[in-house]
């Protein structure tokens, strides 16, 4: 047992060393990659359930490293947050999403909003409203076609969270709460924040067919959102039955693999034509 314990420990430290060095390699590679155009933005359609039309696209960053291949944002976003690269990375995504959405509008595609994820670290940065305003000016995109997705964690990270939100709303952009229900904050913020959309986390959507309690939670979130005059969108929708459930509960919008995976910008136009025909 003693030998096993020792081996176990050895194994653990090796694994730990490996993950520590991968992290530090990635944090260096991140900074370099930003200057080398290794990052792109993919887009996932958001569907209005009643009319079955596209009402938005969520911008999701992608990193194709020349040697390590595709690295998932779930891995590199936390590293970018810890090392401060999130500011440049976030600004890149914001600029790119605004530019792309304007280009789609100019190409004659019916206008929709582009939703950009804003990390709590970015949100706490004093000049976020200026960064957003610059992205709008540079692209020529009207503010109403930009939505910023914030998580509940912005409340902990910025004392001036509500003031910052009002500054952003004053620019004309829309705000949504991402991953709703997975944080630890109290619900009281819902009446204080100038938001217009709640995004139900895929953690709840996933089990609405199999778990009565998750189904009850999703129904309750939808009703609460509507009572508060908020729009509600379900994330991670993968099946027809989930769509039927959400429609029956009058959920406003849905997003997920059932409709589409996040796609490169070039494929969005193709998707759009097919979606309109269907
Ligand atoms: P998120 O904002 O909650 O984004 C939704 C994630 O769910 C995306 O993963 C998306 O590809 C995935 N997804 C969409 N539909 C489905 C589905 O039907 N089933 C399943 N299982 N998954 C689905 P992705 O792109 O890997 O991003 C992971 C997380 O990384 C995001 O979660 C977000 O927190 C962060 N992230 C991605 N792009 C950005 C960005 O530009 N800025 C910041 N700050 N964070 C980002
Ligand atoms: Ca999101
Ligand atoms: Ca989410
Ligand atoms: Ca998430």
UniProtKB/TrEMBL annotation:
It comes from the Bacteria. Residues 23-276 form the EAL domain. Keywords: Membrane, Transmembrane, Transmembrane helix. This is EAL domain-containing protein.
């Amino acid at each position: 047992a003693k030998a096993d314990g020792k081996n176990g420990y050895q194994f653990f430290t090796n694994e730990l060393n490996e993950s520590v060095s991968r992290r530090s390699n990635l944090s260096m590679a991140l900074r370099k990659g930003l200057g080398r155009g290794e990052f792109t933005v993919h887009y996932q359609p958001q569907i209005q359930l009643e009319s079955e039309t596209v009402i938005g696209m969520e911008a999701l960053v992608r990193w194709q490293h020349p040697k390590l291949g595709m690295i998932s944002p779930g891995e590199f976003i936390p590293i970018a947050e810890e090392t401060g690269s999130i500011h440049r990375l976030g600004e890149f995504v914001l600029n790119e999403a605004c530019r792309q959405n304007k280009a789609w509008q100019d190409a004659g595609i019916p206008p929709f909003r582009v939703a950009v994820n804003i990390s709590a670290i970015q949100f706490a940065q004093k000049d976020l409203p200026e960064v957003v305003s610059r992205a709008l000016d540079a692209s020529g995109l009207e503010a109403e076609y930009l939505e910023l997705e914030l998580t509940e964690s912005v409340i902990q990270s910025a004392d001036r969270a509500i003031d910052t939100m009002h500054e952003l709303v004053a620019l004309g952009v829309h705000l949504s709460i991402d991953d709703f229900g997975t944080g630890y904050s109290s619900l009281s913020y819902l009446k204080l924040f100038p938001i217009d959309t709640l995004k139900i986390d895929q953690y709840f959507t996933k089990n609405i067919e199999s778990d009565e309690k998750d189904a009850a939670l999703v129904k309750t979130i939808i009703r609460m959102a509507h009572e508060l005059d908020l729009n509600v969108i379900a994330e991670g929708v993968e099946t027809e039955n989930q769509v039927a459930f959400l429609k029956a509960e009058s959920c406003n919008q849905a997003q997920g693999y059932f409709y589409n995976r996040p796609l490169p910008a070039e494929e969005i136009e193709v998707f759009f034509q097919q979606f309109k025909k269907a």
